[in-house]
Fold these 4 entries.
Entry 1:
Amino acid sequence: MSARVSPDGSTATAGDGATPLLSAEGLRVVFPGRRGAPPARAVDGVDLDVGAGEIVALVGESGCGKTTLARSLLGLVRPTGGTVRFAGAPLAYTGKALKAYRKRAQLVLQDPSGSLNPRHTVYDAVAEGLRIHGYAGDERAAVAEALSRAGLRPPERFFLRYPHELSGGQRQRVVIAGALVLEPELIVADEPVASLDASVRGEILALLLRLRDELGLSALVVTHDLGLAWNIADRVAVMYLGRIVETGPVESVLTNPRHPYTQALLSVLPESEGEPVVLTGEPPDPARIPSGCRFHVRCQVLASGAADAVADRCRTEDLPVLGGGGRSAAACHWARQG
């Protein structure tokens, strides 16, 4: 069992409180290297829980492993190591088990245009999941209810439309309706508003919140935008180079960030006070993860000399995996000394 780190740096075991709806423990996804290169550790030891009726934001730069982690949680990428559990039961990777699981956990992608077949009507796009899973009820009524829940009313007005006849926001609502029609318990939304105009983004976020309140739906929202996390999430997990480096209730993390990486991400938000932190370089290659703290080569606190007391540890001593539950914690030698 992986070590869990509490806010004071002590460790505890998982299992406190109710069983999470979705849980990952020690999750690893390693891709083979090309032409003799070392394997890439895209997800390198992650514990992450999503409770019933909870919205968790998974935040980080492009290339940090967020999407690979999300896809592995849905069984779309088989982990190299670790365990995924849904409602307490380990995820099985047989075709039958995965088909049953994907009825309960649905993916919503960032590009609604790419998610919808341009030759299919809205009705067929939403009904596709029902047909795949052999739905025996009233298909027309189920499609109408899903469209209505997604905010497309009256739903019959959209049945025979094609994606090119819809706005970007309407297309994203169709994608969400296609997930809702199977009555899932969890949705994983990968950058759900990244391709939308600012005027529409708030509507889609409000929709996700309403679905949580009305249906008890859980959600893992994958995003690079901490502002989005602030508006929608109950809890946030900040990811860097394959690991969760800070986690906790959204207000705690975003008003009092402890990890220098989280501080840097927050500093560039328009409403942030003070000077923005410009991180040097790109995140390291996941095939060549630095020793010690994986952020130390870009860390603005270490570079400024403020972390000289722990500088050697930052460069050489690895940090334990953060717990996946609700406790606030940061994988940072400098934060833990405070």
Entry 2:
Amino acid sequence: MAAVHDTGPQLDRRFAWRGRQIAWTSIGSGPPVVMCHGTPWSSWLWAPYARALAAEFTVHLWDMPGYGASSKAPEHDVDLGTQGQAFAALLEHWDLEAPHVIAHDYGGAVSLRAHLLHGRRFASLCLVDVVALRPWGSPFFTLVAEHADTFSRLPAPVHLGALEAYVAGASHRGLSPAQSAALLAPWRDPVGQAAFYRQIAQADERFTAEIEPHLGQIDVPTHIVWGEQDTWIPPDRAARLAAAVAGSTVTLVPDAGHLIQLDAPVALATELHRWLVRVTSGTP
């Protein structure tokens, strides 16, 4: 099974939560699968994979509040604690008792918080280049946190230059113009610019510090996938995470950076399909 990036299924539904509008959709039929994106991404990264899996699974896509097609009101917090609560509420709204969860980047911490701190049950977990263990972030995060208001008021060309360079650094193979445009789109206008720096400013390692002591409590099948050339979250985290989650398995994907969905689409699609078939069929 291969994935080719295109516009994918549109998020045509909305869930109202604490004044926010969370955009989502579901496609296909079969066992439920939920795909969680990270930062500064959106469900666009997962859309082709969802389409490919829809022949065998019911796949749910969503954009976190403050991201993608979801609302970006400046008064709403977008930290990992808030996102974990939002995901737990969304799962309840969908009436999904124990879905299979696939998470990337921040989506890892969001999913783990929903599971470990908010009591949402999962059938399995697939963690792809996730934020889960300290340290994470970058000097850029620290700089933005100290001057978020200033960054939100940068002239548009300066903001777009910084944004493009930042996003490009997540790919090992390099982004095509179309891929770059899709990833930058939610953050280009004034509302998106402010939202982009707001989510970075609210990044805080305390939200992963809170879940690290509980990782050993995970008792569902867990698979960890990592790009070998991930410079945003180095692949040593995969081994550390596997050591913390008893019985978990690890696959390292060569020639892939943090944007593994774009760097190695065939390898990742094959890995995800193999994993889901295994956990839904009960194969050891």
Entry 3:
Amino acid sequence: MTKNLTCFVVCLFVSWMVAAQKRAYEHINDLSYLEQADESGDAYRSERCKLDVYYPKDTLNTSAIVWFHGGGLEFGEKHIPYGLREKGVIVVTVNYRLYPKVQHPSYIEDAAAAVAWTFQNIEKYNGNPKKIFVTGHSAGGYLASMVGLDTTYLAKHDIDADDIAGLIPFSGHTITHFTVRKEMGIAGTRPLIDRYAPLYHVRQDAPPILLITGNRELELLGRYEENAYFYRMMKVVGHPDIELMELDGYGHDMVYPAIPLLLDFVVQRSKEPQQ
């Protein structure tokens, strides 16, 4: 189901601002998420495979949001999106290797390693490994979807992708990413669905999913439509918990108005089951 959400987003944001309690937060920078000391001698890998953890110091059992930056898999830096600070959640923001210094699937493997690190370490930062949500914008949304849908990447770290509490790609490819296609000599206007496409991994037992895009007329070429097709195929296979939201009035640069929707999704999927 698609929704025009401008007023709804504003109301959600206001409610979050009112409800937010004043807490002490700590921001730890540039932690390596490599599983062990990197002995490969790859200086670029050691430089890029870092993450930050931003967390409330006085709460326990806290939900964590893993955020992957956008930039077409070619540029970008880890950051905490405006609107995610001081919201009572942990934010794990990740750098990963970029094209042309690496090619696929290196950046997907990096994303999986960062998510695995989060599962293995989040309790040190007052987090709950059962409440880890994976998200990102554009290329970051694509990485979130790939890590959560193709179970092989996390399985290499002995993590079950289905233990992710939710996937929330912001305006992410569901077909094979255009940079992956460029690496294969395929034009950006020629769609492809192979094992590097989230659509290739449609399955009933995937984590809960919230797809958010900008308005279909303002988005990058076909971005809303490919998300709509992914949504439909997930419904066809019987996935029980997926939503598609289209932000009226916004194009590809739709992070800020989508943040309250992300936070609401995290709250709803983090509720303890009733006894």
Entry 4:
Amino acid sequence: MKRKLFSVALSLVLAGGVLAGCGSKENSSGASPAASASAGAANDLAGKKIALVMQFNTGTFSSQYVEGVKEQVEKLGGKVTVFVADTDLAKMSSNLDAAVNQKFDGILIDHGTAEALEAGVKKALDKKIPVVSFDSILSVPGVTSLEQGDQKMAEATLEQLAKDAGGKGNIVKIWVAGFAPMERRQLAYQAFQKKYPDIKEVAAFGTAQDPALDSQTQMEAILKKYPNKGDITAVWTAWDEFAKGASRAIQQAGRTEIKVYGIDLSDEDLQMLQDPKSPWVASSAVDPKDIGRVQVRYLYQKLHGDQTPDKVVLDPVYVSRDQLPKDKQVNTAQLSEYVKGWGGSQQGYTDWLKAAEKK
């Protein structure tokens, strides 16, 4: 009898030890059960297929935006496929349908219009595919829409133009309708015109097709129409591709008394901005790589089951030649050393996202 009781007691002790051992192994990281569950959910997000549906992929700003998207997705163990419509909205709509039909895990949208995208977006949501858009006029429930502070960007460059011009002069506007960010920037321009009636618009143009080349060609024609120094005070451009073309035409014509003010900024733009012979003197922008990174973070929040806002506004930064070093060239990755608020945005980050990146 004693031997039997001893055997039972020994069995209980051994069983308790095994259970305790298993428990200590599960909690060896020191993580709480909630943290472990969140980490497990984050691990489930590895290997996701993400579609990036773009209206256009023009210039270095767009290419750096795509780099930001890919960098953030790859950090989270996923893979990006890019669909580019070359400004053809019908093709963009078709590309969106293709992304849905190919059963991508999540969809990112860059530009586009509600008319072209709404039906495809609703189809994606019906199939439980989350969608996050950038600079698209979309108001579909369940979609998080990112935009830059477009009016703020336009106001910053226009106010500096007015200050440099002494509140009077003749200007050229380069802008194109039909794009959400352009339309928002145009609102700031209209307010600027009312505020500064002595600043006259003598010419306006712009196209999304070959924008840098077209802007250069059209600016060359305008310079011939206004050949004298003082005929044109400044050029305001609503997109960096426009600023590139206008700046090249002005510089080649030797008319660098004309100043150019832009919106958006890439590495190529920054080189032009730093050139003392370039008429391009200032721009207002958000780091294009940051835009891509932030957009991906909100998509992964949706994949994780988190609640996300309907609208996210990215804060722009004003960058002028005066802020930049004169003894060396810098790129957008180094710009934060000279311009406060540039790059390194933490928008859209969560603790579990940061933990998922480390894994």
